[in-house]
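ok here's the first one, seq then struct tokens
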Amino acid sequence: MLYHMKEKERRYVTLDDGNARRLAKQDPALFFETYGYPLLIDEFQRVPSILLEMKRIVDQKALEGEDNNGMYWLTGSQKFRMMENVSESLSGRIAVFDMAGLSTAELEGREGRIFHPALEELRERMKENQSKDIHQMYERIFQGSMPKMAATDLNRDRFYTDYINTYLERDIHELSQVGKLSEFYDFLVFMAARTAQELKYSEIAKAIGISAPTAKEWVSILEKSGVIFILHPYFTNLTKRLVKTPKVYFLDTGLAAYLCRWPSAETIENGAMDV
């Protein structure tokens, strides 16, 4: 997406490219001199050492009184490693944007609106929305909101199988606080089956056979990696918001359906979820 929206003068380099990666590792200063700026660097987490050189360049621009905003755009697909390196090297010098799945407006090719609870705003939204029957709604839930699924003819089950395997074997396996991946997978399935339900760590721990602190840590991992969203209840009293039990939602309904092994939208519609 950033490649398509970048300015003409902004160059692009991916650190999946062996030559670019070797240059970035061996001589970060020469790497930035070679590619200049503005620059879009993809898969930057492969060479975290470039961040220190980037910090030096950005700070030098600031000292010289030059505009240093937007000099570098960084993208990557391993969120834990990315954020760890960014937090250590570029704290206070970077803005972070998380890419969620496609919204209904994006999937339907219409303009998206910021949600507002005012009645007039809701009426305007209803005029623009494409009407759907109940079967179409469940089909949308089943398919999910992953951009690649919407833009290609990929087999749904194959896509989510690869997604889960990559998530477990690459991202989760690197975390010391996760022991057996088989237990974490069971936890992932349990959380998918409990989507839109209250978040109770004791229930999770009992069902998976782990401790409550471990359950809390694993929930935090899912939240930080953009798999789930924890919704705290709304009260005018701030204290109640903090102490009342929140609910947990999978950000991609297609992933939740896949983990629960629901074979079709009709299965969900006919009451596959036990609530």
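and now the second one, same deal
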Amino acid sequence: MSVRDAVGQMFVVSMNGTEPDYYIEKMIRERNIGGVILFGPNMESEEGTRRLTASLQELSMSTEPKIPLLIAVDHEGGAVQHAPWVAPHPPAAEVGLRGDPGEARRISAQIGRELRGAGINTDFAPVADTGSGAAIGDRSYGEDPDLVGRMVAASVKGFEEAGVVSAAKHFPNHGPALEDSHVGYPRVEHGMNEVRATDLPPFRAAVGAGVSMIMVGHLVYPSIDPERPASLSPRAMSLLREELGFRGVIATDDLAMEGAKRGGTIAQAAVEAVAAGADLLVVSGLPQDQADAYDAVVAAVESGEIPRERIEDSVLRIADIKKGLP
């Protein structure tokens, strides 16, 4: 695979409208992107979404090197439910209060089956954060890391039953943050003992349950890395790989968020994320920003700033996930 095709596999991008337009077609045909993330405005109905996902997959499979797409959503239940045909479910906090992992598994399996029916094969869920800080609220199963871990592991199994790739998020834990990484620069002042005791257990449980992806958040944990958010931090990626033993795909939270850009550009954040060890870059927003981010990573590989082996490792992990899709 060429450098351009390999880098493309590392991108999951958003699109406009309810059918493929010029920009998303160009991203698929000329940049070999690995996936597309759909939001509410892309999905007016189950049938319309089924046509859209089939068209996107046909575009990708008719273009060399003919690799299927990850077609993703953020669909958690509660307030974060982008697919309008999927039956509504309570927020994670309500499920966590009942403390029944079987319920969490059943909900995720049902969500997964209904998403699969419209051609969606990836859900950026479940939330593995503990606590209800900024941007999380009732999206977390609760405050107790052991309880959250049990619920997250069950949810991962539910998505697996449905044949949907899941992604535990937002490593190392967005729950304690007092700022929203969409618009701010959250810092979590936990020492490493507290990180290991309260932040990591749900992610460890997700790894134990066989989760395919872990999404890393735009959170600065000074005890892990005093300068970079986890999504751009080699130290955070190393913690996930070495201490938790995670061998799957590390995905970034959306690089269009301010917590990743930090006053700079999406392109700069994309290069930093890949250099740090991220496998999959989620990029919403303007088509030009998406193209610029892709071009920046290609240029960094071609210049030697990012080793080609770094890209190849990610492409192999992504290919492993895609081989397992129904």
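notes on #2: Strands lie at 11-13, 35-37, 70-73, 75-77, 80-81, 122-123, 165-171, 213-216, 249-252, 281-283. The longest strand covers residues 165-171.
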